Amino acid sequence: MRYHKIPDETVRRLPVYLRGAIHLSQQGVESVSSASLADLLGVKPWQIRKDFSYFGDFGTPGVGYQLEGLIKQINKILRLDTGPKAVLVGVGNLGSALLAFPGFRMYGFEIAAAFDADKRKVGRTKNGVLIEDITRLRRIRRRRIDLGIIAVPEASAQEIAKALVDVGIKGLLNFSPCYIAVPKRVKVITIDIAMDLARLPYYMPSS
Amino acid sequence: MRYHKIPDETVRRLPVYLRGAIHLSQQGVESVSSASLADLLGVKPWQIRKDFSYFGDFGTPGVGYQLEGLIKQINKILRLDTGPKAVLVGVGNLGSALLAFPGFRMYGFEIAAAFDADKRKVGRTKNGVLIEDITRLRRIRRRRIDLGIIAVPEASAQEIAKALVDVGIKGLLNFSPCYIAVPKRVKVITIDIAMDLARLPYYMPSS
DNA sequence: GTTTGTGAATAGTTTCACAGCA
DNA sequence: TGCTGTGAAACTATTCACAAAC
User: Fold this and answer.
1) Rounded CA–C1' distance between B138 and C14, in angstroms
2) Which of A184, B90, B123, B174 sees the fewest Cβ atoms within 10 Å?
3) What confidence tens digit (pLDDT) does each residue in B15-37 have?
4) pTM
5) What is the C-alpha to C-alpha distance for residues B31 and B155, in angstroms, rounded to an integer?
6) Residues in chain B within 8 Å Cβ distance of A181
7) Hey, what CATH class is A85-196 in?
8) What are the structural domain ranges in chain A?
9) Would strands B129-133 and B125-126 be described as parallel, antiparallel, or unpaired?
């Protein structure tokens, strides 16, 4: 099934598979069947097989998927093998939590820079990252950072997004609860925490 | 188009529309067309009309949607009109940020209780919420709380989820990067921050 | 025997185009 | 005229079932 467009949903699931693969690999497991990986991750086995099939032959019939190779492949597809760097803008409550967040490392990420508008925070170091003045954002141009994380109040989110795009950022993870307009070449993923919580009651019985 | 099953994707978008409607309403606007609301939120007008059409006649041809009524309707559909309460488990970096998070109020939410395993945190108050001992989780039974927010390390997430379900929680917002098994009647929405960041490089040109 | 890879069938979602109402 | 509501068409994604590979 090569030479196909990869469904967006497949791309969304690849990090899930990667996490499962890394988890098992760390436990000393060498290979896994779609059935057991599915069981571990709470998805369906045929979904995994179909998803992997878009990228070529990952597995061995009768055996399963070799974990080391699988991890390498997914990392390459997602372009995580280049150790992408991110710049955080907004070191408030959420921003600080993100700086301290242990989960990025698994995927080979690093928050390599942090900026804030609050002069009292500028110059201090948090989790090994120096907080710089937002007016000096231009500095990151030469640092090979191409992901931006927006953790500022809604009112300044659009402005910060524009500034980040202007200094060469190619992808944005946005925690502000608003739509952000950027050139089409820039990918934005918005995480709106309140919004996700807001659709939970819909699914709850009676109450 | 009444008497239809509501698509999940429509439910996912309702909070987006609600946010837009509240935003405009606060600016004194009284009604809005699908075209301008779409423009504000970065979606397509026909998507909005189709989504609303599942619930009956929200709008007036030639005029648009009356904001006050729209807000009331969406709140009712999502069951936000009952002022749902949530319990937070895990008051670490992320949990603290969630307690301080201003965005929940717009949707009528309240974090009404917080629990942690760390004895040093227990008894203290953060953003007006008392931090209680996780071994006393049973206390929430009588408090009409039916949403749980899990912000604990991955290793204890499944255990906490089970405990929450056991004390009557009907919906979970999970920030741990793992699959959580619960009875089918309980809805789980997982926000895996690292995972969202991890698929960003895939969409970035060359780099 | 076990497990993959995948065409075909099914299900779900988005987009369109326009009739009908204010 | 302006805008909604909605069938129908187009598109996208999931599920199935089984031949081929080990």
Assistant:
1) 45
2) A184
3) 999 999 999 999 999 999 999 99
4) 0.95
5) 49
6) 42
7) alpha beta
8) 8-77, 85-196
9) antiparallel
